[in-house]
Specification:
The protein has about 325 residues and is mainly beta. It has helices at about 5-10, 245, 260-265, 310-315; strands at about 20-30, 35-40, 40-50, 65-70, 75-80, 90, 95-100, 110-115, 120-130, 135-140, 145-155, 165-170, 180, 185, 195-200, 205-215, 215-225, 230-235, 270-280, 285-290, 295-305. A hairpin with a 5-residue loop joins strand 20 and strand 21.
Length: about 325
């Protein structure tokens, strides 16, 4: 249930706060990424899209997979998890945990890949959903005495409602997961709510997700919850809005071919989606995608001059 967010708007005082800054485009044909710190280096987990989802240009495979990229050099650290899509990662105690659905179009089986060196991966199955459910984007965070995973789902199952819907799972060890009550603990079956990014700060789980606007437009919003049943809408929403002047700037023009530069310059920009973030050297690193929501998407970078806890709380009174 979404709590009444209109009443606080009438009385709340909202002082001017720091805001994030868009830095520009990193690469073409890339979405669903997770920035992560691994052994003091800033990496980016990526889904290498298959030809079903991807557009011309950039990195694409007939069968999709995952890889990590060094964000300083843009060097790939090796591909793994063939025939998996979407996905997210979480690092803790010298291990990297990668979660994602099996299959190239959003499957119903969720697999886990664990590694201590990003080269050798141990695979296991952690969740199997009903036949009429498809798994898409995921996000994992450490919460109050447990880990929680947000899972974007579609399909004809009643847990979905209006596609897409976010359901949740929990774990005590990052290895074994169980679904929360999918009818009681979800967000939200009354409208399109996709692309979750979940974090925990001071008793609240904050979730950035994608809202569908009128006339083929999508922008990320933020809510927070204590129990995954009742949600508070952030007063400072949306989190960002598509802006071709900012989104289309090339951070490293020398890393783009002339054809890729042309694609960026001519692309429709009606969408900012797939927001994810991490803390690095006192700032919040934010990745997001922009494009047309019809397959032509581009990966972009933003930053907030402060910790992610401050960034997330800045959207609320």
């Amino acid at each position: 249930m979404l709590l009444d967010f209109r009443k606080p708007l009438k009385t709340v005082d909202m002082p001017l706060r720091k805001t994030m800054r868009k830095l520009g485009t990193l690469k073409v044909n890339t979405v669903e990424t997770t920035p992560v710190v691994w052994k003091d280096k800033l990496l980016r987990f990526e889904w290498v899209r298959n030809t079903f989802w991807g557009a011309d240009g950039g990195l694409c495979r007939e069968v999709g997979c995952y890889h990590f990229v060094d964000m300083e050099t843009e060097e790939s650290l090796g591909e793994f998890a063939e025939d998996h899509s979407f996905g997210c990662c979480y690092a803790e105690d010298g291990k990297m945990y990668v979660y994602g659905p099996r299959g190239g179009v959003g499957g119903r089986v969720m697999d886990l890949f664990v590694s201590s060196d990003l080269q050798q991966w141990e695979q296991s199955t952690i969740l199997t959903l009903p036949d009429d459910v498809s798994i898409f984007n995921t996000s994992v965070c450490k919460g109050d005495g447990k880990y929680v995973m947000a899972i974007e789902v579609g399909g004809d199952n009643p847990m979905v409602g209006e596609p897409f819907t976010c359901i949740f799972a929990e774990s005590t060890d990052l290895l074994h997961w169980s679904l929360m009550d999918t009818m009681e603990c979800s967000y939200s079956r009354d409208r399109y709510t996709a692309c979750p990014c979940l974090r925990y700060v001071d008793g609240f789980y904050y979730m950035i997700y994608l809202e569908e606007m009128p006339c083929h437009r999508w922008v990320p919003y933020i809510v927070r919850t204590r129990d995954f049943r009742e949600y508070e809408m952030g007063i400072n929403n949306p989190v960002m809005w598509f802006d071709p002047a900012e989104d289309k700037k090339l951070i490293h023009p020398e890393r783009f071919t002339e054809e890729e530069k042309r694609k960026v310059a001519l692309a429709v920009d009606c969408n900012n989606s797939d927001v994810d973030l991490c803390d690095y050297q006192g700032k919040t690193v934010i990745t997001y995608s922009w494009g047309n929501q019809f397959g032509k998407e581009f990966l972009a970078l933003a930053e907030y001059d402060g910790p992610s806890s401050e960034f997330l709380q800045s959207f609320f009174a």
